[in-house]
Amino acid sequence: MNLAAETVIIGGQTVKKRLVIALLGGFIFLGSLLGLFGVTGVAAAVPLSGVGEFTVKFDKMIGKDFKLLGGLADGGTRQNNPVAVNIIKEATIYGLEISKKISIPGLGTIRVVIESKDEKNPVKIDGLTQKATVVSGDAVFTNMEMKENFVGNIENPLEKVSKEFTQGADTITITNGELQTLYLWQDKVTLSNMKVYFEIPDSK
Predict the structure, then answer these.
(1) Distance of CA 57 to the CA centre of its chain
(2) Would you say residue 51 has pLDDT above 60?
(3) What is the domain partition of the chain in residue ranges?
(4) What does each C-alpha distance from 177 to 28, 58, 63, 137, 174 come to in angstroms?
(5) How far apart are CA 14 and CA 7, in angstroms?
(6) Which residues, listed in sequence order, are joined to residue 141 by a DSSP beta bridge?
(7) Would you say the pTM of this structure is higher than 0.90?
(8) Which one, of 164, 172, 163, 174, lies nearest residue 144 by Cα?
């Protein structure tokens, strides 16, 4: 990935002053993303968390050995958020976009975006774990199993509910997926033609 080749254009012009402000506002999230995916587009065993809620969108995801269970995750403003924990052994993702909105006084809301949308070379992930507060999309499962588990004496009701029910499938295919996410982990991820950019509103 050549970050120097990526430009931020507003109204047909590159605005350096606004870019500097955006860079400062999105530095933590962007740094976490680049640490997660690596400057080369290949990374291993790095989590993305502690930056508040962010959005994961994709055109299509094909996963093998899928598991879904309840869980808890800390967000930027609240601890112990109920989440859906998605665990996938191998995933292939087409049209991936990860973004976060950041509010900057005097500038408005900017979006920090990282994407990989090479149709011939989709994103490949081994050992994916994602904790999401909202999951939407069209899903197809093969050999799906749902079951309730005995969890014993757990006093925290949120923790108890999160462990009582689990779901699994040999494969999962999601199209037009969108997830509001608090935590993202992968053992290994490879992205082709990774692009990092900022969407900055015009001030008139």
Answers:
(1) 8
(2) no
(3) 3-199
(4) 25, 5, 13, 4, 6
(5) 7
(6) 172
(7) no
(8) 172
